[in-house]
Amino acid sequence: MEWLRSKTTMVAGGCLALLGLQGYGMMSMRNTMEDRMSSVERELQAMHNQDSAKVSQLAADLEAVTKRIGNTSQELNEANGIAEQLKKENAAATQRLRRELAAKADAKAISQVREETAKGLNALQQDATAKFDGVNGQVQGVRTDLDSTREDLAKSKSELGTLIAHNSTELDQLRRRGERDYIEFDINKNKKAERVGDVIVQLKKTDVKKQKFDVVINADDTEILKKDRTANEPVTFMVGRDRLRYEFVVNSVDKDRIRGYLSTPKDKALAAEATGRRSQ
User: What is the pTM of this model?
Assistant: First the structure.
């Protein structure tokens, strides 16, 4: 019995000990859980405080950015206004510069035109002077030729010993001088040539308005063409071995008809002798 009591006491003591241990474990676990929960609450509170701070900072930053955006928008509007004003001033300056350049260009062009005109006038004056000198020289040459022609004509008249007759009355006066023979002619235009003295004449063309004619004179078997000759203009040609001077004068030019005279030396032998002496 004693053993049973002792055993019972030990079992009861073990149970109590076990219950004590379980109670202690439960209390220890409860404390641990409470400490953990307190730690979590503290962390949550810290996180809440930290998030609140971040939110506050973000709100402050947002407000600052909003202000800056407002300031930037105002500055942008002001910058646009300034840019527009600068654009207008630049356009006005460009127009003014163009006007000034145009004025300078016009002045330069006018100056250039004046300079070119002056050069042109100077060149024209020099050219005119040179041409005048050339023409003056030509005039002097023509005068010299004219004087020489007049002298030759006077010499020819002296050699011929005759003058030009313009009509039958003047021709009679020349005949009375007795210095040369005068043979009158009236020639029509046809295919057949006509004899006048010792030469043969063929009329080729007449111009009544201008009193001009073309003839072919055959002397010593040689044809001599005289073109574009005028009425009362002596047509002189040489005949024979002694080169005696003949004179063909047309006083009137009609349509396909000429009238005038042929002047020949009166004494051909004496004339030939005189010509020979002059040629020596």
Answer: 0.42
